[in-house]
Amino acid sequence: KRLITVAAAQLGPIQKAEGRDVVVARMVRLLEQAHRKGAHVVVFPELAFTTFFPRWYVEDLDEADGWYEQTLPSPATQPLFDAIRRYGLTCYLGYAEIAHEPDENGVLRKRRFNTSVVIAPSGEIVLKYRKIHLPGHKEFSTLRKVQHLEKRYFEVGNLGFPVVRAPVGPVDGVNLGMLICNDRRWPEAWRELGLQQVELTMLGYNTPAVNQENRGFEAHHLRNFHSQLSIQAGCYQNATFGVGVAKAGNEDGFELMGHSIIVNPQGEIMAMATSWDDELVVADCNLAMCELGRTTIFNFAQHRRLEAYQRLASQ
Ligand code: CDT
Fold first, then answer.
1. Of the chain's two ends, which shows fewer C-beta atoms within 10 Å, N or C?
2. Residue nearest to atom 9 of ligand 1 (CA)
């Protein structure tokens, strides 16, 4: 039997003035809880170590380096890796990455990405993803009450949508894939993973509870509806389990949505967080469930019609 226990480790708010040590200690407590509840894999939010800093404008990006990780682990984040090893967990972790690497012209540069990794029970990083769908804007907007400067702080990810087959708990090989926040709203992102037979899609998010650009058409309760609609559809249409995990609550006066969920390949919600704080929810996932969609209605080899999809890759 291919059975794994999956945990969504929702984080409550992290204030701008709070240091990594406080957050890392909270995350270690969630890993302890996950271990006690028999979880094999734990999913943390996007940009898990800091406040959602793209709401704060800085003129010179070098002044924002404190919000990024230059190495992983670092002395400040090592306790998290120690706990992962201690409890034998697989872990999804979102963070802001500074990488010194060549750009598309081969010039070595300091580059910034909104990144997630899969950490194996050994503490080794076995997969890295850099967010592709960056929402928001690049320059300070006088029209908004709160900024969403992801296009300023990050470059578009350059690693595609990778999937790795890795051991999880008692199961030898599970196909693991990652998305980050806004990616969940894009069917192309899910399909990229589905085409690699992903079985567990992990994603973290920081989603403001109010859409600054709603123009009177997006009532506040639809924020969560759209998030869950996207995750449930992505899971069903690609025959994968999914875990969507929030950083939730009030950060320096600005609210982030909660409602972290674990979803099965039928698109049903199996477990959901009910607070806006640190909270762990778990679900037992029978990976055999992925087979149904994959071999029937969503048997891609049999039923997809590439010849009719020309626009998808060309515009
Ligand atoms: N972090 C992130 O990607 N948040 C976006 C908010 C979009 S509003 C500019 C999301 O899609 O949830």
1. C
2. 136
Peptide bond into 45 cis (omega under 30): no
Task: Give, in order, the Cα–Cα distances in Å from 216 to each of 11, 103, 209, 239.
Answer: 30, 41, 15, 35
Domain segments of the chain as ranges? 3-314
**What is the CATH T-level fold of the domain 3-314, as seen in this structure?**
Nitrilase/N-carbamoyl-D-aminoacid amidohydrolase (3.60.110)
E strand or H helix at 98: strand 90-102
Kindly give the number of the ligand 1 atom that is closest to the alpha carbon of 54.
1
Kindly list the catalytic residues: 46, 131, 181
Nearest atom in ligand 1 to the alpha carbon of residue 206 is 1
Closest CA to 49 of 204, 208, 167, 235: 204
Instruction: Identify the residue whose C-alpha is closest to ligand 1 atom 1.
Output: 206
205 C-beta closer than 6 A to ligand 1: yes
Q: pLDDT (tens digit, 9 = 90+) per residue, 111-164?
A: 999 999 999 999 999 999 999 999 999 999 999 999 999 999 999 999 999 999
Contact 149, 54 (CB under 8 A): yes
Cβ-based neighbour number of residue 279 at 10 Å: 21
CB-CB contact of 49 with 24 (8 Å): yes
3-class secondary-structure state, position 77: coil
What ipTM did this prediction achieve?
0.97
Overall residue count recorded for the chain in this entry: 315
pLDDT at position 220: 87
Nearest CA-CA partner of 112 in 85, 75, 149, 76: 149
Contact between 246 and 273 (Cβ < 8 Å): yes
